Amino acid sequence: MTTEPTTTTQAPLRHPSAFEPITFILIILLSVVGALIGLHLITTLGISANTSVIGALVAMIIGRIGILGLSKFRDINRQNLAQSAISSATFAAANALLMPIGISWAFGRPDLVWPMLAGVTAGLMIDAWVLYRTFGSRFLPATAPWPPGVAAAETIKAGDQGGRRAAVLTGGGVVGAVMSWFGLSASAAGVAFIGNVVALLMLGIGLMVNQYYKLVPALKDVSLSGQYIPHGLMVGAGLVALGQAVWIFLNRPSRRKATPVDDGEDATDPALAPTRGRQELASGLGGGFVVFIVGALALGVITGLMAEMSIWQLIGWALFAAFAAFVHEIIVGLAAMHSGWFPAFAVTLIFLVLGLVAGLPDVPLVVLVGYCAATGPAFADMGYDLKAGWILRRVHSRHPGYRAYEMSGRRQQYYAAILGFAVALAAVMLLWQPMFTDGRVPPVSKVFADTITAGLTNPNAVTNLMLWAIPGAIIQLIGGSSRQMGIMLATGLLLTQPNACWLIFGALIIRLVIRHLKGAKAEEDLALVGAGLIAGDAIASLGQIFKPR
């Protein structure tokens, strides 16, 4: 997306703090709303929603009130802190906390819920820390699509600037909301206007195959997921993606651009340069893995696994659990970076199957799956939020103090997310027992618990995982770290989004035609339309709360 970086003043840049009293209060209030929305959606519909745009809109409205200092929320950076907090609370409460502890309850071990809550909270915090430490590197660049982040930023900018931008965004939002209400994934079309063309093409191919493969007579009775074919592709692509991350921080940047830049971008813009070097990337990923090991060991002890395992078995279990959590967050994060979707359920299922194959006892497997499932969503969501902040702060990229200002803004967003996590944890601590007792357990939690109880029913699962990992790895290698072709193809095969493939293909064709006719400058308008579609889809998805069950 093209943004004209300008600097209207050379005065020192100061980013507002998440702990300013009035900002702090709004962050807490929005986080409560976000956590309750997440808990309701995950237990009734089995989904969660990105509430970033809701937080931004609330902050905009409050900023129009001229009393009690509320006019401070006219500042787009404070609006960014508000949207960061509410989305963090939503995903933390639903995906990272309630769903993992629901596995213990559904498995018939309510005594494990409290220790599991402690463990998954640690996983959540590690997850967010790793993303914060690695965002802006060549592996997770700020210049990557992160589509929901673009949507949030463009919503804030349109509200601030008004005019044509607001009209285009609003039009896209209305179309997105209408499409969503009629069951069409407007986000699919939206990301195709924003993301990497090749990556989105692979996602569309995966979605198309998943939707239509049964039309082939020979495949009529075949289940791709039941044969673990998409999971195998994801295993191969995921392992290569980890290798690509290692390659990035073991090798010096080439003389070519360190991060991908769209044709319409000004390559001299300081905002396009990586803000995390090789050493920071290495310490972020390596340190995160070490902390995941410590967290897994602590979780094993407090859940009583020592009663079922020897000390060496516990250490082996902790290493496997840490590896699963780490790989899970990386795969989910890469998929989210390019598509705005993350296949968290499917990737967790891979490690559940591997645990069954390894012969792990039921309780250690329940704890492992819960720990693994807690990572990924917060990683992806924080990437969206930091992308939004990067877009908003980029207007000052020519200022001599820009880099410090950018890093300060990210730090304040991180603090806002932590506050959202704290509110989410409090909400889950207060509500999990009455919700579970009332039968409101996340459907995904039941699926994991039932799978562990049933055991491995497909004897060819491991063979298929290993066999299909080969083409997954090859495709990922061909695409490289900037396109993530293997990850995106596997993501499409794992998602069930009726007709989303045609929306992606149609949007890509429109994008390419318009670029051919109007040049790279058209990317900004296309990204604005895409942001509107995603924002409208996100708002309409919350309307599902009011649909009859």
Throw out a few tags for this protein.
globular; mainly alpha
Explained architecture:
This protein has 20 helices and no strands. With 549 residues, the protein is an all-alpha fold. Mean pLDDT is 86; it is low at 254-261.
Short description:
The protein is mostly helical. 70% of the residues lie in helices and 0% in strands.
Contiguous uncertain segments of 5+ residues: 254-261
Look at the helices and sheets and give the structural class.
mainly alpha
Rg, Å, rounded: 22 Å
Strand proportion: under 5%
Tally of contiguous helical segments: 20
Q: How many distinct beta strands? A: 0
Give the helix level as a range of percent: over 70%
Largest sheet: none
Shape: globular
* CA(first)-CA(last) distance: 40 Å
